[in-house]
Amino acid sequence: MTLDTADLVDRRIPGRSLEAPFYASREVFDLDLAAVWTRQWIFVAAEGELPEPGDYVTAAIGPYSIIVVRDDDENLTALHNVCRHRGARILTEERGSVGNIVCGYHKWTYRTDGSLLHAPAQDGGFDPACFGLKTVHVRSVGGLVFVCLAEDPPPDFAEVASRIEPYLLPHRLREAKVAARVDLVEDCNWKLTMENNRECYHCDGHPELVRSFFPTYGYREDQLPPPLRPAYERYCRVRAELRETYDRLGLPYETIEELTRPSGFRIEREPLDLAGESFTPDGTAACRRLLADFPTARLGHLSLHWQPNAWFHVLSEHAITFAVLPIAPDRTLLRTTWLVHPDAEEGVDYDLGRLTKVWTATNEQDADLVTRAQCGITSPAYEPGPYAPSEYQVDAFCTWYLTRLREHLRR
């Protein structure tokens, strides 16, 4: 039986979770690729992963393989990882460095800007200018690299980028280097990964995280469960103190929440608990070398959410990026990258285990939770349930997602 995706989209009840086919159907997954993943700006890397000319990363977005490379002029270029000869996959590693981009099949050779440099044994009428690698839109925002596969990307991206960058630039992420990168495959649909991140209703399942992260995220004061009130009162006191620091340092901190626009996002600067410096058991800095010339490490964290596939935590002394990429209806890649000052030395300025401990544990706990969700949703007994008030950002994500599907289905 063919699934009526338009009807499925139209009958969604606001304030409730999505029906099972959204998470389990191959037809919906293919629709997601067409309506979301090939049309929106997708976060794929940090500039710190591409510090020198010739450095590259590859990213799989559904059936597409994308190369992001720093070209010989030190600009970022994004290219389809498909040889223009007979279509072979050119670069097979997730990251590396090249002089030129050489296809391992028949040795067609491309410059780092994608232009064809050499094609062996072609006839005299062959024009190399007609056979460069196909390009992909690419844009760095404060050191975060986004690509868009659409011919005409969402037009609001430039305006959104101009509002996000003032928050990011003081942390000098363009200069930061990679301390660690971990790929985790979760046994769930990509939307469950994103929904799980958009609420803290489940944060009591993250004992390492809630040592320093206030578990009151998403709650209004009049909605707070009594056990969370002491943490909320502490949060308010620290927030007031930190805002004086932010004002003195010229760091923007006000919340901007526009989650349902085409380039949907949420950004804010907010406190951490305990020492207030980092995601560690006691809240103290995980790296002695700060990312920038801050006079204090106690800056809480800058939080950025991006529709449809990323979130970020930027602190005084390191930053963490999280990229979500779809593999199959029930499999999703979560790629986590830790960034530190370019001169920070492992074993001297930071201990890698301490730097990565909290979010490694949190990611593994979340992977278990979203696997449970996927298993339950595929049961015939499942039906959409109501969101709690603190899960309003999950509802906003679903609204954003369904809007993108409706736009696609109307084309």
From TrEMBL:
Keyword terms of this UniProt record: 2Fe-2S, Dioxygenase, Iron, Iron-sulfur, Metal-binding, Oxidoreductase
Cofactors named for this entry: Fe cation
One term of GO molecular function: dioxygenase activity
Record field: transmembrane: none
Pfam families: Rieske, Ring_hydroxyl_A
InterPro entries reported in the protein's UniProt record: Rieske_2Fe-2S (IPR017941), Rieske_2Fe-2S_sf (IPR036922), Ring_hydroxy_dOase_asu_C_dom (IPR015879), Rng_hydr_dOase-A (IPR001663)
Presence of keyword Oxidoreductase: yes
CDD domains: RHO_alpha_C_GbcA-like, Rieske_RO_Alpha_N
Residues of the Rieske domain: 41-147
Name listed for the protein in its UniProt record: Aromatic ring-hydroxylating dioxygenase subunit alpha
Originating organism: Amycolatopsis minnesotensis
